Amino acid sequence: MATTYTKGRLYKLKIADLNLDPGQARKFMDPIALNELSASIRKHGVLSPIQFRQHEDGSLFIVAGHRRVRAAGMAGLTEIAGTFTAGDTRLQGFVENLQRESLLPIDEAEEMAALMTEYSLNQTQLAEALGKGQPAVSETLSLNGLPENIRGTCRTNPNIPKSFLLKVAKLKNEEGMRRKVQSFLNKNAQSGPAALKKRRTPQRSLIERTDMLTGEFMSLPWRDWSENDRTDLVNALLGIRDRANELLADMGWTPEGEESEAESSPLLRLS
After folding, report:
1. DSSP-assigned beta bridge partners for residue 10
2. Which pLDDT value is given to residue 87?
3. What is the pLDDT of residues 44-98, one digit of tens each?
4. 59 alpha-carbon distance from chain centroid
């Protein structure tokens, strides 16, 4: 008999039981960034739960957190924390990916077009759903006009900036687009890989995700939650606090006034 899950509640999940969502927007995972994330998880654990949904046959699918699941498996973990979600999970997963970890511009554009078709949205409605301005959505959608061979090049060279691709998309012919992209790649190959990596490093991505997670904590509507959900939230926050203090201690900085280890609160309890 399939397990019954409660929306918004945190669960401990077996990684082997999780399936990739066929509607997942992310088509490419940078192997270097994935290895770095795996190394971080090996040392510090998974700092943020994934989101998952349940199919009518009982099977579980990842809504958001595909990279975390992959990296956790690479790190040797067999279980991961996940929050159950329901409803328009494709849209939820896309928004989560936009907020937490930048998608490739090409994947972002293709997923926007797919969402417009699936939900019968125009650009203004999609912009409202994503919390973006309509001009920004229109610009991103213009990347779908790039030829398939150039889109493939973008996926194998994930550090090509979106601002550059938007300029390429404005060109009138495919040959001009191809020459401009190749010129960009040649120029940065001569400058060395650091020229592209400097714009967005895995370290900066982790810092940005940590800041974003902190902001999410501040806006949690916990007063409307059940007692069990509040208890789970408290345990989750205490677990994060303990890991944060361990990391700070490793970095040589210890917060003043922290309680002793003997007085520390219980470990994260997952249902």
Report:
1. 83
2. 65
3. 888 778 888 888 888 898 887 888 888 899 999 999 998 888 766 666 666 666 6
4. 22
82's enclosing H/E stretch is strand 79-84
What gap in Å lies between CA 231 and CA 234, rounded to an integer? 5
* Fold (topology level) of 1-89: 3.90.1530
- The CATH number for 102-214, chosen from 1.10.10, 3.40.50, 1.25.40, 1.10.287, is 1.10.10
In the chain, where does DSSP find H-type helix? 31-44, 66-74, 89-100, 105-119, 123-130, 134-141, 148-156, 162-169, 174-191, 194-197, 202-218, 227-250
Mind listing the pLDDT tens digit for each residue in 161-187? 888 999 999 988 888 899 999 888 888
The answer to whether the beta carbons of residues 45 and 79 sit under 8 Å apart is no
Phi and psi angles of residue 159, each rounded to the nearest 5 degrees, phi first? -95, 5
What is the total residue count of the chain? 271
Per cent of the chain over pLDDT 90 is 11
Asked whether the predicted pLDDT for residue 30 surpasses 80, the reply is: no
Query: Would you list the domain boundaries of the chain?
Result: 1-89, 102-214
Tokens of 31: 């192997």
Distance (Å) of CA 14 to CA 69, 72, 79, 225:
10, 11, 4, 26
Which is more confidently placed, 167 or 255? 167
